[in-house]
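Task: sequence design from structure.
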């Protein structure tokens, strides 16, 4: 539909124009900094930043009911800049003109209700939101679309010319960064740092295919992070990790989409997200808070942050019930199948502390909870999800295991409806499924395959068959018929098929 075909009261709001007054706000000393520079930490005290719109209250001039209509009507537009996360332009990057928006197909990922059997096994009604159906097959595209649209804006307005974008990654950040940077050739080049042998082959292939410079270094993610922090402190590079507050803005779209998908009724909802560097849970909380401030939603949903017991510094921090006595302790992580969340010193921890406090205050009670789960449970729920028609990654399994734990421990009631984040596509982590099915897990994972969950291919080559077809050597005549007969019989036996009645 074209803009002129929409209702007259919607038309003026349909296509957003640049507005708002964005600033970086330091979470340590609360100083505000101009948005025109690429900042990652506070120049005064070194703390992480969040982006704030000083003119946010202007959004209240449009009543909530009209906002809902605007977002619904934007669904019908064919304008690429509004097809992705910038459907919520006013809440994500209001200063960015639409012609600077980079859209590669991110956002608006499917929300799929689990079948009856799986819901019964978990103990409540739930849906998966498949963020693996983003262009680089993980939710990281949301934040990259935001960060790269902003950099694109700086380039097209002549504020910067050439940009070298860098990031450290557990796999998916580098895939997304390299993809978006490749689209913006030749102005942007990218370099990514990965912990050697700690990303899957699929994740390694992604930045290589996008033409990024790929560095594999010894250590774990936390070590890579220290190196890119040193690089971005000392050299002219753009940091694309979630330390970059623009990433957080883009990832808020996940919350906005859930609100819109469920008709803005968040009262009985619970959102389940995995935690690694904690950028994602920061964005999810921040997004719901913003919609609540404008009255688009009346209630904040419950949020459950899930960590593997092999990398659970955020969970451990909140184990201390007395807020004044909580102390953050960075961890040395152990091996985890939720590899993208294998982080012992999350960069966004100060943001989590700040936002959890704010979230619970606004909600008028504890609405953010943390659980941790063993590797064994992560693998089992990952496999069970996919056996019931989902395409969950290991982090999607981690979330489902976390939801089950939260229900069992009474953290949440069974009357709630959960939306479970599968942060990446199952195929990125297929190697862990192989390890399980072949019972080859290294000791450090502490995963023991449950026989009923193992599935392996069956090779059918009957001993009596001396001749079988091969590429370039087809069988014909009697040998071919013997081959078809023998294998048909074996498969029918294996499947215990009933012979059709002779007519
Ligand atoms: C990055 C990532 C996470 C962790 O998200 P954070 O923002 O680092 O907490 C979880 N799952 C997948 C698939 C990821 O790529
Ligand atoms: Zn500061």
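Answer:
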């Amino acid at each position: 539909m074209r803009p002129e075909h929409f209702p007259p009261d919607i038309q003026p709001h349909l296509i957003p124009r640049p507005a708002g007054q964005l600033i970086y706000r330091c979470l340590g000393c609360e100083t505000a900094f101009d948005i025109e520079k690429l900042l990652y930490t506070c120049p005064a005290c070194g703390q992480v930043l969040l982006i704030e719109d000083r003119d946010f209250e202007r959004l209240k001039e449009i009543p909530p009911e009209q906002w809902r209509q605007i977002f619904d009507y934007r669904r019908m537009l064919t304008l690429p800049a509004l097809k992705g996360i910038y459907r919520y332009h006013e809440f994500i990057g209001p200063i960015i003109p639409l012609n600077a928006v980079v859209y590669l197909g991110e956002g608006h990922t499917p929300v799929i209700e689990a079948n009856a059997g799986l819901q019964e096994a978990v103990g409540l009604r739930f849906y998966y939101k498949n963020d693996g159906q983003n262009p680089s097959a993980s939710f990281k595209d949301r934040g990259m679309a935001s960060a790269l649209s902003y950099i694109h804006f700086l380039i097209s307005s002549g504020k910067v010319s050439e940009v070298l974008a860098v990031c450290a990654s557990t796999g998916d950040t580098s895939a997304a960064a390299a993809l978006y940077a490749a689209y913006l050739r030749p102005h942007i080049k990218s370099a990514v740092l990965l912990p050697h042998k700690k990303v899957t082959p699929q994740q390694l292939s992604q930045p290589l295919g996008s033409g990024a410079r790929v560095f594999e270094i010894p250590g774990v993610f936390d070590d890579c992070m220290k190196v890119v922090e040193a690089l971005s402190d000392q050299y002219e590079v753009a940091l694309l990790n979630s330390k970059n507050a623009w990433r957080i803005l883009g990832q808020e779209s996940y919350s906005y989409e859930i609100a819109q998908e469920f008709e803005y009724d968040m009262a009985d909802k619970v959102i389940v997200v995995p935690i690694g560097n904690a950028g994602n849970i920061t964005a999810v909380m921040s997004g719901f808070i913003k919609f609540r401030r404008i009255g688009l939603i009346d209630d904040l949903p419950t949020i459950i942050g899930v960590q593997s017991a092999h990398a659970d510094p955020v969970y451990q921090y909140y184990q201390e019930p007395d807020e004044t006595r909580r102390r953050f302790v960075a961890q040395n992580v152990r091996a985890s199948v939720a590899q993208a969340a294998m982080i012992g010193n999350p960069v966004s921890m100060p943001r989590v502390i700040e936002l959890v406090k704010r979230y619970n205050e606004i909600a008028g009670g504890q609405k953010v909870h943390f659980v941790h789960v063993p590797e064994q449970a992560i693998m089992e729920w990952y496999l069970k999800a996919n056996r019931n028609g989902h395409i969950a990654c290991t982090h999607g399994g981690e979330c489902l295991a976390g939801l089950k734990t939260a229900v069992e421990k009474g953290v949440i009631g069974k009357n709630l409806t959960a939306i479970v984040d599968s942060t990446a596509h199952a195929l990125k982590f297929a190697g862990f499924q192989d390890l399980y099915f072949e019972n080859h897990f290294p000791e450090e994972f502490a995963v023991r395959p449950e026989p009923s969950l193992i599935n392996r291919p069956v090779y059918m080559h009957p001993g009596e068959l001396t001749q079988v077809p091969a590429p370039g050597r087809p069988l014909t005549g009697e040998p071919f018929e013997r081959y078809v007969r023998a294998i048909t019989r074996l498969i029918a036996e294996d499947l215990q098929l009933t012979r059709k009645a002779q007519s």
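The mean pLDDT is 96.
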